[in-house]
Amino acid sequence: MKFTNRKYIILISLIIGYFLLNAIRIYNYSFEYNENKSDVAIVLGAGTNDGKLSPVFRERINHSILLYNKNIVDRIIFTGGFGKGQKQSDSRTARFYAIEKGVPENKIIIEEKSNYTIENLEQSKYIMDSLGFKSALLVSDPLHMKRAIKLAKNFDINCNSSPTQSTMYKSSYPRAKQLLYETFYFSLREPLSLF
User: Fold this and answer.
1) Do 75 and 40 contact (CB within 8 A), yes or no?
2) Is pLDDT of 189 > 80?
3) 43-57, 68-82, 97-111: which range is least confident on average?
4) pLDDT in tens, 134-147
5) Are 115 and 21 in contact (CB under 8 A)?
6) Tally of CB atoms within 10 A around 120
7) Which of 4, 68, 154, 167 is 20 to 30 A from residue 58's alpha carbon, by CA?
């Protein structure tokens, strides 16, 4: 009985250790920032409401506009389809916002089929391949970047991390909540042997 209990304790300790290790890696990776010259910026969707951008999505879009204005990227891909009951896609809302901020319409590409990060990246890869783009900067929130980059690499997207520098997750509770969320989903997807 004691041996069985000890095995459970060891197993639980290993699982907790695995999650903690991933949390540390996700946190450390959140500081990876690139402004390498690239063909496109891929902006991962973060939701809209009746044509209004969420604060998180707005900051991602603002960062892609910064990259474009600095001539670091030539085009911007906005990702995100239709939320429940929405008549306008997230990416189309992003497009209107970027145009208002001075980005030429012909420099913006949108995809309206995706609802999750993995779908954002799958559709972005299709766009890149169809238009001959070879390199990308991936734009999202810092704590989202490790999982997003890993998914992008699974689609053979040649990209680097360029997280927002003005994330809306500023206070401790939202940041901790996001870190837990990212750690959970990252840990479920990644076998320990890959680290």
Assistant:
1) yes
2) no
3) 43-57
4) 999 999 999 999 99
5) no
6) 30
7) 154
Q: Taking 70 as the threshold, does the pLDDT of residue 161 lie above it?
A: yes
Closest CA to 174 of 149, 139, 143, 140: 143
Q: How far apart are CA 158 and CA 146, in angstroms?
A: 15
d(CA 79, CA 40): 13
CA separation for the pair 134, 5 (Å, rounded): 53
Tokens describing residue 77: 């891909």
Superfamily for the 32-169 domain: HUPs (3.40.50.620)
What is the gyration radius of the CA atoms in the chain, in angstroms? 18
Residues constituting the chain: 195
Domain ranges in the chain are 32-169
Residue 194: per-residue pLDDT? 42
Q: How many CA atoms within 13 Å lie on the side-chain side of 152? A: 24
What pTM, to 2 d.p., does this model score? 0.86
Give the amino acid at 4: T
CB of 182 within 8 A of CB of 30? no
Which structure tokens are listed for 4? 């069985």
Q: What pLDDT is stored for residue 14 in this prediction?
A: 86
